[in-house]
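Extended Data, panel c. Modelled sequence:
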Amino acid sequence: METDAEVASWQLPSVGFALEQTEGGTLLWCSTSDLGWMGRVLAGLESPFFVRRPAELRDALQRRAEEISALAKRVRGETSP
């Protein structure tokens, strides 16, 4: 994450994450079997970030971005595709 560990901690759930302050920002460590959940967590962050690994997490984050984009385009009375 492109922020310090203190700011990063405010943006994350209170359990399940380890933060490591580095010279270039903060490394976020997490272990989960649900990459969709992790994609939802990342989509809610206010600080810029990039995913180092796993590549499948980038895919999950992309799917979440597409879901959010589709929701932003909906108007009242429309049903989901």
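The radius of gyration is 15 Å. This feature is highlighted in the accompanying rendering.
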